[in-house]
Every structure is written in structure tokens, then in C-alpha cells.
Amino acid sequence: MALRAVSALTWGLGGPGVGPLRSGTFLRCATQHRLEKMPSSIGFPEASRRPFSSHRILVDVDQSHGVATMKLKNPPVNSLSLELLTEFVISWEKLENDKSCRGVILTSNSPKIFSAGLDITDMYGKNAAHYAEFWKAVQEVWLKLYTSNMVVIAAINGSSPAGGCLMSLASDYRIMADNPKYTIGLNETLLGIVAPFWFKDNLVNTIGNRASEHALQRGLLFPPADALKIGLVDQIVPEDKVQSTALSVMSEWLKIPDHARQLTKTMMRKPTADRLLKQREADIQNFVSFISKDSIQKSLHMYLKFLKEREK
Ligand SMILES: CCCCCCCCCCC/C=C/C(=O)SCCNC(=O)CCNC(=O)[C@H](O)C(C)(C)COP(=O)(O)OP(=O)(O)OC[C@H]1O[C@@H](n2cnc3c(N)ncnc32)[C@H](O)[C@@H]1OP(=O)(O)O
To answer: What span, in angstroms and rounded, lies between the C-alpha atoms of 62 and 46?
Structure first.
């Protein structure tokens, strides 16, 4: 198996914004329309579309089908900066509160990069208060995605290292562009940092313990075909079919009655989400003290330098 690495080195029912069952779920489900036919592109008729956007997040809601497409837009590499994460949470809450929205396709506005992961500049050379705020936002985005009532499909249209991979892992289904130049994986160890327990839990739940041990320790980044083999993604398709495949997979998922699917998702994911929720503050303090260490700051500095100087 060809492995590539960049070398160089709420649940709690009622909890704000992360509860798995929004009030009225059962009532709404009983009257919900089934999705019989989905358009093959995002060219929805104007009347049924409701786009909204912020600086770094573009959202297009197809109200007649109940599906939103959310695009990350943070050039040049869609890094998950504090600003992007904050805007993500605001947009996500808007979708969660939109009764017509049952599913979200998460993708990137950039053609080659789904997301370069957490913005390293938010973890380097800042003060403890900044690190704490940043990490809280990372936790919040993961909790929102992982515990969402909506069907979440990641349309991975480019490379997806570290935090980008985490966002995909938190989705219900992953479709990746079949281009061997793209990679996906939790490569934290290559930066001299450590994926926290909840990144690890999400990976183990997806690809199993042994494959996770191997992938995490070596910081492996998998090309699409290998990611498919180990179950890190569910499907690989030609680059120009990622969005249309996501729409047709979504239509299949939305045939399942919402209440049954949501309760099943809760049953599967609640223990993992609860583990973070129970020690959220301690996890923030762990992050702050880990990332503030001189040795870790030095590793991040070296990695940023490597990224800037490497041959393209
Ligand atoms: C005991 C346990 C305690 C645990 C406590 C917690 C510990 C901390 C846990 C932290 C978890 C971290 C998760 C992460 O997500 S870290 C980020 C990891 N990401 C990467 O390694 C990806 C790096 N980037 C790339 O590989 C490439 O950029 C990419 C393939 C995405 C695109 O390549 P391309 O050639 O198109 O673009 P460039 O490399 O030229 O990049 C353009 C500019 O963007 C800058 N860049 C890239 N990635 C990042 C990033 N993640 N953050 C910030 N900036 C980034 C890059 O430097 C270039 O900048 P310049 O234009 O200035 O040169």
C-alpha cells in the first residue's frame, strides 16, 4: 500500500447547540417529505435556493430538497483559523435552526484543497488566552459536526490533512476525489504534535484500533485509493463527480425517517462525544500547556519554515 507523508519531521440532551434531538423532531419527521429526486448539480431553481455566506463560509440551501451545501473558503489552503471556525459555528447553528434543512454537504471552495487542517499560525507565537479560545472553537466545530441531527456528507475535493481529516471523520459519510495527488489523514506527529484523545476516538470508531495505531503514530497521509481500503473514506469518485455523488448519496440517506436515523446516530456517537464534553475545560488546559511549551513552539516553527521553503 503506497503511503505518502509530508516529510520534515453534546451531547447531554439540552446542552447548548449540541443536543442530538431538536425539539419537535418527531412531529417534524412525521410530516417530512421524502426525497425522490435530487438534481445532479448545485444548479437549483432560484425559487427554492437560499444562499447565505460570511467571509470564509459559503452556504447554499436547496429548500425544496432540504439539503445545504457548505463550502469552506479561506485561501490559499482553507486552513481552519479561529475566524473560520467561528464563522462555521454561526452558519452551522443557522442550518440547525432551519427546519427545512435535513442534510449538509461539507466541501471546499478551493479546487485542490479540502482543508489544510488547523491554522498553524493560531497555534504559534500567541498567548495562552488565544490558544484557549482557539481550542474551544476547534472543540465546538467537532461537537457540532459529530452530534448533528442533520445528515452530514463530506465531499472531499482535495487534500485533507489533520484538522481537515477530522472534519471529514465527524461527518456521516465521506466521498473523496480520486486524484492520487490528494491525501487525507491525521499527520499530527509529523509536526511534532499529538492528536488529542477525541481525534483518536473518532478515528478508531471509523477505521478500527490497529489501523489507527499505525496511522496515528506514523502520521500517515493516505492517497484516496488507500484511504478507501482502510475505510477512512467511504467512496472515491472522479474529481468532477464529487458534488453530484454527494447529492445522490444524500438522497439515499434522506429516505430514512429522521427520528430513527437520529436516534441511531445518537446511540452510536453519544459515548464518544460525552467523553469530550465531560472534560472539555481540562482538554483546553491540556492543549494550552502543551502548545505553549518551547519545544512544541520550536517544532511548529520548523514545520512552517519547511512548508514555506519546500519545493513545489
Ligand atoms: C499529551 C497530549 C496532549 C494533546 C494536546 C493537543 C496537542 C495539539 C493538537 C493539535 C492538532 C492539530 C491539528 C492540525 O490540523 S495541525 C495542521 C496540520 N496541517 C498540515 O500539516 C498541512 C500543511 N500544509 C500542506 O501540507 C500544504 O500546504 C497543502 C497540501 C495543504 C497545500 O499545498 P500547496 O502546495 O497547495 O500550498 P502551500 O504548501 O504552498 O501553502 C500555501 C501557504 O499556506 C501555508 N499553510 C499551509 N498549511 C497551513 C496550515 N495548516 N496553517 C497555516 N498555514 C498553512 C503555507 O505555509 C504557505 O504559506 P506561504 O504562502 O506564506 O508560504
So the answer is: 9
